[in-house]
Write a structure and sequence with these properties.
The protein has about 270 residues and is of the alpha/beta class. The protein has helices spanning about 15-20, 20-30, 45-60, 90-100, 115, 120-135, 160-170, 200-205, 210-215, 215-225, 225-235, and strands at about 5-10, 35-40, 65-70, 105-110, 150-155, 190-195, 235-245, 255. The protein has a single domain, classed as 3-Layer(aba) Sandwich (Rossmann fold). GO terms for molecular function: hydrolase activity, acting on carbon-nitrogen (but not peptide) bonds, in linear amides.
């Protein structure tokens, strides 16, 4: 039996550590082939170097890149369009080529709202959903390599209860009602990974992104938390799971949540 594999697709350097860092370590420790693809920034930039250091902690090897510009930061990818303004078909084709090259059993990205509404995260979700389907159709993007069928798509998403606590901690204001709060209702989360055994490595990976920590007030608040608070906010990684074929595949460390209704995650087909 071939070694299982997982491809994590993120918009920016630091997302791989914050949102899915523990799951990445769990997969690497379980002997899976692991890769991280980042849609913005490129070689020769400060955040690329930080990404490489982060992936060393996570056990994910060298980064894969789409090399688009981060909006408002032209030096992130000189002479390239911002990610959300580039040609959609070209972006999907580039991701299809990466999927067919790495041949992952599982692809991981954000939920439909990009976890918290960032336009680059939402855009990443959309091209990933298209690319995992298109990669299986050899008549599409025939120059991108032989067709490849991904077994399962996982979308990282915060439970509403955690989103509410995070909102109130970072904004110091009352959270909106559930209909206007990011995340997924707690009883609709498909699987979760307890990443506390890997929290030191996840934290070291996140701390590799020094320039983003200096820029982001939310990350600075996170760095000020004590160990117990940190474990509460980033010690579990929760996902929606969509199987693209019979059976699908469970990520290492993932626990299927039983909410007393459907026994298995839903499928795209």
């Amino acid at each position: 039996m071939s070694t299982p594999s997982v491809l994590f697709v993120h918009a920016h350097p630091d997302d791989e550590a914050l949102w899915t860092g523990g799951t990445t370590v769990a997969a690497a420790e379980a002997g899976w082939r692991v890769a991280v693809l980042t849609c913005t920034w490129t070689e020769g930039t400060r955040r690329y170097d930080e990404l490489c250091r982060s992936l060393d902690f996570l056990g994910a090897g060298a980064p894969r890149l789409l090399r688009y510009a981060d909006a408002g930061v032209p030096e992130s990818a000189p002479d390239e369009l911002p990610f959300c303004r580039a040609d959609l078909d070209t972006e999907i084709g580039a991701l299809v080529a990466q999927i067919r090259d790495f041949r992952p059993d599982v692809v991981v990205t954000y939920d439909g709202y990009g976890v918290y509404g960032h336009p680059d995260h939402i855009h990443t979700h959309r091209i990933v959903v298209a690319a995992v389907d298109d990669a299986a159709l050899g008549v599409l993007y025939p120059d991108a390599g032989p067709a490849w069928h991904v077994s399962s798509l996982y979308m990282v998403t915060p439970p509403k209860s955690l989103a509410r606590a995070t909102w109130e901690r970072t904004t110091r204001t009352a959270a909106p009602d559930d209909d206007h709060l990011p995340g997924t209702d707690d009883d609709r989360i498909d699987v979760e990974v307890d990443v506390r055994p890997y929290l030191d490595r996840k934290w070291s990976a996140l701390m590799s992104h020094e320039s983003e920590i200096r820029r982001s007030s939310a990350l600075r608040i996170l760095t000020a938390l004590d160990a117990e608070q940190r474990a509460y906010f980033i010690g579990t990684e929760s996902y929606l799971r969509r199987d693209l074929g019979p059976g699908g595949l469970l990520l290492p460390g993932a626990v299927v949540l039983d909410h007393g209704s459907e026994a298995a995650p839903s499928s795209l087909h």
